Amino acid sequence: MKSESGKLVMANVRDELSGDEFIATTNKFVNATGTGTDKIRLMANPMLASRMRPSKGVHLIFPAEVFPGTDALLVPHTEDARVIFAVPWQERLLVGTTDDELTPDTKMLVQKNERTICYGN
Asked: Are 47 and 58 in contact (CB under 8 A)?
């Protein structure tokens, strides 16, 4: 529901686990719907342009000994302008990037160049 000025101020909400329904009122709403973001934005304003740029994620898992410790690492800019992360996860090390744009022809496999980006050789 919107205010007189057109600002979203409340929403009818249903808890999918309990089935309870209620009205949520607030000054700000967070659209954390992932790939559904543009659909939700269009519900608020049908004139908005699309913002989503689907991307392909490449994630490799290594033994934790590769990068011992509990801290995560973020490389915000590589030689080819990617962002790379390394995160300790379930007694392993998760290394990855999500900077490749998804197209209808995208192969959902780790390509050699992607492996090199995450692994180094």
From this structure: no
Q: In what order do the strands lie in the sheet with 73-75?
A: 55-63, 92-101, 84-89, 73-75
Give residue 6's region: left, alpha or beta (phi > 0; psi -120 to 50): left
A 10 A CB-CB count for 93 gives 21
- Helix, strand, or coil (residue 106): coil
How far is CA 99 from its chain centroid?
A: 11
Q: Residue 117: its pLDDT value, please? A: 65
Helix (H, G, I), strand (E, B) or coil at 66: helix
Q: What is the pLDDT of residues 38-51, one digit of tens each?
A: 988 888 789 999 88
